């Protein structure tokens, strides 16, 4: 390696070029070459394209991974030649204007390494044409080195050729010339050829320098052009900014003109505003006088309130006495009592479960009527299968007994021994009997049926609004009972809580069951087929033919809306079922308002239901409130009872868990509705 470098240095020195040696230490040869090109700004480079033994005549692509890496990653300012076995394989131009490739490349001496300089020529050594075809993109020192080496090689080659076969031009000379003369002339010709090559090389060097100067000038021109474009861009931006500011100024002028117009309008309105202010001040004085009068009136009312408070205290004393009398009266039926009869009492009430007293039977048990403690009752015998204890059963039943609603059958007792529930007895039986005309009962008119549907919907809303919601789980016409005033009441409330392993239900389950009840009320058909029958009738346009004719003349168009509502309740997807408050009850109330009941039909509504009467005042309640014992009282009555120091229930005489009161909105609504109809 040192010998080769010394030979290059000597050749360059003979050409008048000073060259130095640079040693680079590194693990990666190709990266070192690329970094050196960038570091020293090398503009020409000759490098081997592959090992010499890999050379073929058709070779045109780089084979060495180092050569490929350098070709791809070297700075674009470097012009590179890649040779193999003395042949030029590939040229990478320094800039974008490609130079024409050489059509033929002469072989160099094998002593020159693939990574060293290389040149090409056409024809024999010694002519001027060879010098014109030399490659022009090598670095200056490398080119000089390559030329010098090639000169030497060409000279040796010429000597060998002359020794073997003298050139034609000398063979055809005069016969009198000796071989020494021919040799001298040949040497002279070679010398002339070398001088011509040297001159051609010097001219090439000058031309390349001129090209470099021209490129530098082009770069400067391009930089100037770029600067000009930047200035033009900045000028356009400034012009756009100026246009924007001009537009903003114009907008501000328009706004100013608009403000001036509004100011003029305000000035014109000023007298009117002053007049209004004067009137407002006069009204203010008048209001001040009224406030003074109101204060005086308030003082008077406070005096009256004190008098009423004294009367109220006296009334509380009387209430306390009346409450004691109510608790002592065991001969008269009262909803405040919660019976816990023994098994023997149940046997006595049902006459040993006499089948003639059985009034109903279903999957939730049998129902008997009877008399308990001189009160007519209905006893529901639940299935005894399950693991629920007596205490748990009794607690669940007592919770259900506290539910009070005008359209829910009141649970008045429980017998854990027999797994039986004791309800108030309703004389007119179930809605199933009335719809199907069992027992020769008269049919219900369609207005009464709409009223019943509204009442049952109200009861469902009431139990669903409790925390947590109470699910009926077994809503059907058999569980809708009618009292002596034909007021409908929902029975079997919470039975699914008292029967172990019963199916888990949700609020939407009750909505679906209500949809079936509503369709049956309209048509009188069985639960198994009513949904399909109504769908087919609505689809075929003969809905009027499936309505229950015994109910009178139905307003078909309005009832058709109820039928669609019932079908929505029966949708398979619970998400698509309507809301009872916003959709169902609202529709039923509109129907009731459109067709109010006649005086004859409303006769039964004039009688005061017992659950509308306050147990303390014995008057229809105006502001019903639920106490901790589960019973509903008039607000003033129960508050007077509690404020007088009582901590027990006025009905059961048991200690109250707390003294908080809850307004009974459902009962208040029912009382108001009853008063409107009456």
Question: Helix and strand layout, with pairings?
Answer:
Blueprint: H1 2-14, H2 29-40, E1 44-48, H3 65-73, E2 79-84, E3 87-92, H4 128-132, H5 140-164, H6 168-171, H7 179-328, H8 343-349, E4 358-362, E5 365-372, E6 375-381, H9 390-401, E7 411-415, E8 420-424, H10 431-435, H11 446-464, E9 480-482, E10 488-490, H12 495-498, H13 507-523, H14 530-540, H15 556-569, H16 580-594, E11 624-626, E12 632-634, H17 635-643, E13 662-663, H18 665-677
Parallel strand pairs: 1-2
Antiparallel strand pairs: 2-3, 4-5, 5-6, 6-8, 7-8, 9-10, 11-12, 11-13
Pfam families: PK_Tyr_Ser-Thr, U-box
Function: Functions as an E3 ubiquitin ligase.
EC number: 2.3.2.27
Please give a structural write-up.
Among the domains are: 2-164, no CATH class; 342-425, Phosphorylase Kinase, domain 1, CATH 3.30.200; 429-607, Transferase(Phosphotransferase) domain 1 (Transferase(Phosphotransferase), domain 1). The chain is α+β, with helices and mostly antiparallel strands and 678 residues long. The strands form four sheets. Strands 4-5-6-8-7 form a five-stranded antiparallel β-sheet. A hairpin with a 2-residue loop joins strand 4 and strand 5 (365-372). The chain has helices at 2-14, 29-40, 65-73, 128-132, 140-164, 168-171, 179-328, 343-349, 390-401, 431-435, 446-464, 495-498, 507-523, 530-540, 556-569, 580-594, 635-643, 665-677, and strands at 44-48, 79-84, 87-92, 358-362, 365-372, 375-381, 411-415, 420-424, 480-482, 488-490, 624-626, 632-634, 662-663. Helices cover 51% and strands 9% of the residues. Mean pLDDT is 78; it is low at 96-175, 325-336 and 602-606.
């Amino acid at each position: 390696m040192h010998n080769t470098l010394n030979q290059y240095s000597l050749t360059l020195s003979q050409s008048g070029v000073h060259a130095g040696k640079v040693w680079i230490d590194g693990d990666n040869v190709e990266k070192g070459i690329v970094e050196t090109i960038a570091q020293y700004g090398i503009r020409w480079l000759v490098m081997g394209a592959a090992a010499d033994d890999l050379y073929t005549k058709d070779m045109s692509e780089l084979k060495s991974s180092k050569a490929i890496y350098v070709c791809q990653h070297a700075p674009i300012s470097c012009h590179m030649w890649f040779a193999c076995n003395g042949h030029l394989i590939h040229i990478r131009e320094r800039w974008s204007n490609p130079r024409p490739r050489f059509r033929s490349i002469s072989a160099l001496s094998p002593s020159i390494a693939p990574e060293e300089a290389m040149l090409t020529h056409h024809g024999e050594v010694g002519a001027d044409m060879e010098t014109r075809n030399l490659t022009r993109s090598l670095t200056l020192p490398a080119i000089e080195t390559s030329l010098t080496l090639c000169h030497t090689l060409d000279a040796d080659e010429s000597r060998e050729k002359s020794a073997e076969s003298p050139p034609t031009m000398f063979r055809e000379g005069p016969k009198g010339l000796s071989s020494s003369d021919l040799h001298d002339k040949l040497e002279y010709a070679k010398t002339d050829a070398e001088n011509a090559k040297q001159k051609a090389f010097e001219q090439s060097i000058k031309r390349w320098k001129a090209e470099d100067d021209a490129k530098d000038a082009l770069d400067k021109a391009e930089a100037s052009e770029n600067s000009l474009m930047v200035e033009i861009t900045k000028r356009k931006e400034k012009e756009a900014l100026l246009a924007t500011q001009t537009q903003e100024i114009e907008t501000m002028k328009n706004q100013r003109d608009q403000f001036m117009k509004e100011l003029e309008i305000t000035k014109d309105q000023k007298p009117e505003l002053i007049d209004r202010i004067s009137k407002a001040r006069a009204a203010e004085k008048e209001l001040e006088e009224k406030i003074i009068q109101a204060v005086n009136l308030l003082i008077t009312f406070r005096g009256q309130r004190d008098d009423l408070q004294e009367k109220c205290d006296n009334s509380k004393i009387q209430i306390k006495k009346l409450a004691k009398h109510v608790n002592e009266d065991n001969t008269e039926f009262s909803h405040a009592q919660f019976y816990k009869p023994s098994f023997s009492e149940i046997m006595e009430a049902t006459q040993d479960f006499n089948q003639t007293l059985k009034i109903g039977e279903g999957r939730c048990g049998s129902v008997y009527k009877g008399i308990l403690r001189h009160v007519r009752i209905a006893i529901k015998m639940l299935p005894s299968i399950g693991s629920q204890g007596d205490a748990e059963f009794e607690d669940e039943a007592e919770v259900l007994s506290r539910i009070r609603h005008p359209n829910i059958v009141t649970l008045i007792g429980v017998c854990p021994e027999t797994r039986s529930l004791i309800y108030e007895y309703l004389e007119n039986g179930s809605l199933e009997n009335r719809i199907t005309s069992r027992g020769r009962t008269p049919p219900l008119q369609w207005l009464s049926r709409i009223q019943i549907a509204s009442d049952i919907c109200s009861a469902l809303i009431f139990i669903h609004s409790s925390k947590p919601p109470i699910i009926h789980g077994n809503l059907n016409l058999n569980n809708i009972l009618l009292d002596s005033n034909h007021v409908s009441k929902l029975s079997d409330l919470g039975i699914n809580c008292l029967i172990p392993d019963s199916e888990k239900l949700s609020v939407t389950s009750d909505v679906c069951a209500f949809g079936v009840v509503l369709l049956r009320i309209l048509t009188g058909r069985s639960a198994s087929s009513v949904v399909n029958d109504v769908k087919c009738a609505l689809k075929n346009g003969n809905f009027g033919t499936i309505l229950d004719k015994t109910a009178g003349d139905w307003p078909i168009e309005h009832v058709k809306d109820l039928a669609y509502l019932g079908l929505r309740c029966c949708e398979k997807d619970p998400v698509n079922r309507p809301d009872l408050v916003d959709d169902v009850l609202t529709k039923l109330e509109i129907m009731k308002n459109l067709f109010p009941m006649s005086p004859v039909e409303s006769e039964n509504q004039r009688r005061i239901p017992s659950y509308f009467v306050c147990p303390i005042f014995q008057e229809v309640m105006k502001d019903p409130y639920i106490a901790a014992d589960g019973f509903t009282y008039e607000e003033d009555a129960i508050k007077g009872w509690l404020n007088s120091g009582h901590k027990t229930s006025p009905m059961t005489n048991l200690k109250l868990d707390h003294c908080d009161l809850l307004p009974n909105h459902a009962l208040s609504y029912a009382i108001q509705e009853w008063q409107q109809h009456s």
